[in-house]
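Troubleshooting entry. The earlier prediction with coenzyme A gave an output that would not parse, so I re-checked the input for stray whitespace and re-submitted. Clean input:
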Amino acid sequence: MVRGADGAGGPPATPYRLEERPPTPDEYRALRAAVGWGAQDEEAVRAALTGALYSVCATLDGAVVGCGRVVGDGGLYYYVQDIVVTPRHQGRGVGRLIMDAVMRYFRAHARRGAFIGLMAADGKAGFYERYGFAARPSPGFGPGMQLRPS
Ligand SMILES: CC(C)(COP(=O)(O)OP(=O)(O)OC[C@H]1O[C@@H](n2cnc3c(N)ncnc32)[C@H](O)[C@@H]1OP(=O)(O)O)[C@@H](O)C(=O)NCCC(=O)NCCS
C-alpha cells in the first residue's frame, strides 16, 4: 500500500511516501549504517524483517529514506523498533509520517490492555512522548531490563 502524508487520497502534503512493507535486508543495512548503527548477523536480519508484525518504509522518488517496525506476539505485547530516518532527510516530517503509521497500526490491531513499549535511543525519548509514550521508571513501574550481551 502506498500513500501520501494525508493517507486519504488527497494531494500529498509531502514528497515522501509510505510503503507498508519491510525494508529489504540491503535497505535495512543502509538505513542502520546511515545513522551509525552497527552491522548485524545476516540470517538474523532476514528473520527479523520477515518476522515483524508490521513494517513501513518511507520513500522519496522510490528510494527508502526511513523505516519503522512493530514486533511482538500480536496479542498482549508489542514493541516499536527501528524507527530510523537517514540524516539528510531528518527534520522534514518523515519520522512523524512513520510514527503516525505505526500508531494507526496499534489503533487498528492492539486490543485494550495490550502492552506497547519501546527502548528509546539516547535523546529520542521526547520524540516518542509526542505519541503518548512515557519514560520508566515511573510510579508503579521499575526500569526496563535487558540481557547483557555475552
Ligand atoms: C528520531 C528520528 C526517527 C526522528 O525523525 P525525523 O524525521 O527527524 O522527525 P520529524 O522531522 O518527523 O519530527 C517530528 C516531530 O518530532 C520532533 N522531534 C524529532 N526528533 C526529536 C527528538 N529527538 N526529541 C524530541 N522531539 C523530536 C520534531 O521537532 C518534530 O516536531 P514538530 O512536529 O513540532 O515540528 C530521527 O532523528 C532518527 O532516525 N534518528 C536516528 C535513529 C534513532 O535514534 N532512532 C530512534 C531509535 S529509538
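This one parsed fine. Residues 35, 83-85, 90-96, 120-121, 123-124, 126-127, 130 surround coenzyme A (CB under 6 Å).
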